[in-house]
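Bench log. Compound arrived from synthesis this morning; before running ITC I wanted a structural hypothesis for how heme C sits in the protein. Inputs:
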Amino acid sequence: MKKIIPILFVVALISCNKQSDQIQALQKRVDSLEKKVAESYKPGFGEFMSGIQVHHNKLWFAGQNENWKLADFEIHEIMEAIVNIKKYQKDRKESEMIDMLNPALDNLDIAIEKQDPKLFKNSFISLTNTCNTCHRKTEFEFNVVKIPDQPPLSNQDFRNQLEKK
Ligand code: HEC
């Protein structure tokens, strides 16, 4: 019996050491994963805005061409960017204000659903004004958005292809 106790003690010590080795290994893994997450790429606020800029432009030409399916697609791209700004740019205080676009977007959504060019135009003007309101409020007033004169790229046809056939 006298011999057994020290043996048990040694066994307990070994298993204890093993456990702390395992904990250390796990901690190392957690640290490296945390580093990976912190370093993983996420688009910046300005990149989301550049995306919104393109869809804002395409939305206008889709509406002008009464290509309602394309308009519906473009408006949803803007809505998706808003969701992503709130998800990936939580730290920017401007993100708290991004929902100010919703009333104009909702009206545009109705215009597209009703296929109503007049409501579309008025709601688009109000959307564009809201872009600038936020730019002014966030001291980015030098970034002025307007109703576009031209599509952003020449390799897209905004006419309703389905109707042409
Ligand atoms: C919540 C406020 C807010 C709203 C609403 C908003 N913006 Fe912005 N926008 C910003 C801020 C802040 C920046 C500067 C981003 C940065 O730090 O790079 C910006 C930058 C931009 C830029 C410059 C991007 C670049 O890097 O060149 C464009 C273009 C732009 N916005 C377009 C729009 C359009 C179009 C709308 C409306 C559909 C809009 N914005 C609505 C806050 C807003």
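What the model suggests: Residues 45-164 form a domain with the Four Helix Bundle (Hemerythrin (Met), subunit A) fold (CATH 1.20.120). The mean pLDDT is 93.
ITC booked for Thursday regardless.
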